[in-house]
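Private note to self, pasted from the team thread so I don't lose it. Backbone tokens:
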């Protein structure tokens, strides 16, 4: 859809709700998805317009964003409210939660080296994560009928093989090794499918999906929530491609998360098991992130994500060093990429 057409549709939807014509519509930098976002302003009051092709013609009662929004609000988790939507157009007008991403907030604190403040901040977001992970529901309904099962995990591994190894890094990897790496990914996947330990995960719980406001932390981009190991969201936040945290803080927050899980009766794992699955899940999550960054760079010609490839490769090096028995063979096959990380 052309930008001009989309803006006109936003104006029409805005007028249907507010009986006024917006004074400005500014396109915002979106996430690594097909959704497009705009700030719509009138008399200094803003809303966020979201165009989602997946919403076009969808049943609002089954549209994941609206289903999750309702569920999270029922559990007192801050999310942007929906002002109005039009499923036929695939458009929603959402509450404007401002411009302060948790990513930028944390980077500023890191710059000032106020590590006591940083620890408190991350305790807060871990508590928020556990609040989501504590939500239970009908296993036959969204989002509880979705999980990080074998099919989903292998889809994400395959996305990496296609867009990172056969695409972005094609000149650095012997294509004959890719089937061997796929076999290793299958073995790792089998270790991660542990449904008896599954909880609800945001699924993209990193520093770009939390908005910092005077009212607290607002979750965004939560429509892909599904069941999985509690470590999935933990590695997303603590080994975030967008913000590299001090190892001491990561260690402290892993322990804090584990204790929170115990207090909320969300795990029967030992702390050793928690750390074991943290590393394996972290490896998978980092591989998934690399696939996304490479897809954006090559297919979408969006180079803004390239800067996050090196730190993500660095995480993979660390996971392999921690779990050589489970990840060592995959690490050997990925060595040309990992050498790049070690020399940056």
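Design output:
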């Amino acid at each position: 859809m052309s930008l001009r057409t989309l803006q006109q549709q936003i104006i029409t939807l805005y007028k249907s709700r507010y009986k006024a014509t917006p004074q400005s519509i500014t396109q915002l930098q979106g996430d690594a998805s097909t959704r497009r976002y705009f700030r719509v302003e009138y008399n200094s009051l803003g809303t966020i317009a979201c165009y989602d092709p997946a919403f076009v013609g969808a049943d609002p009662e089954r549209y994941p964003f609206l289903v999750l929004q309702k569920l999270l609000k029922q559990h007192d988790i801050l999310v942007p409210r929906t002002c109005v939507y039009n499923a036929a157009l695939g458009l929603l007008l959402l509450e404007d939660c401002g411009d302060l991403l948790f990513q930028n907030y944390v980077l500023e604190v890191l710059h000032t080296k106020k590590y006591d403040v940083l620890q408190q901040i991350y305790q807060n977001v871990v508590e928020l994560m556990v609040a989501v992970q504590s939500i239970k529901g009908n296993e036959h309904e969204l989002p509880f009928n979705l999980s990080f099962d074998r099919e989903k995990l292998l889809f994400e591994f395959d996305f990496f093989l296609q867009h990172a190894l056969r695409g972005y890094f094609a000149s650095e990897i012997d294509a004959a090794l890719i089937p061997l790496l796929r076999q290793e990914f299958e073995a790792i996947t089998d270790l991660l499918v542990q449904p008896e330990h599954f909880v609800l995960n945001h699924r993209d719980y990193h520093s770009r999906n939390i908005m910092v406001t005077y009212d607290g932390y607002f979750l965004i981009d939560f429509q892909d929530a599904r069941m999985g190991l509690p470590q999935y969201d933990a590695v997303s936040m603590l080994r975030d491609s967008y913000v590299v945290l001090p190892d001491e803080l990561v260690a402290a927050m892993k322990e804090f998360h584990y204790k929170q899980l115990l207090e909320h009766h969300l795990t029967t794992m030992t702390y050793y098991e928690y750390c074991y699955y943290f590393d394996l899940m972290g490896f998978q999550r980092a591989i998934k992130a690399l696939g996304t960054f490479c897809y954006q760079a090559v297919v979408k010609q969006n180079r803004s994500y390239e800067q996050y490839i090196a730190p993500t490769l660095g995480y993979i090096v660390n996971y392999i060093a921690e779990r050589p028995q489970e990840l060592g063979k995959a690490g050997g096959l990925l060595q040309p990429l990992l050498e790049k990380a070690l020399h940056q």
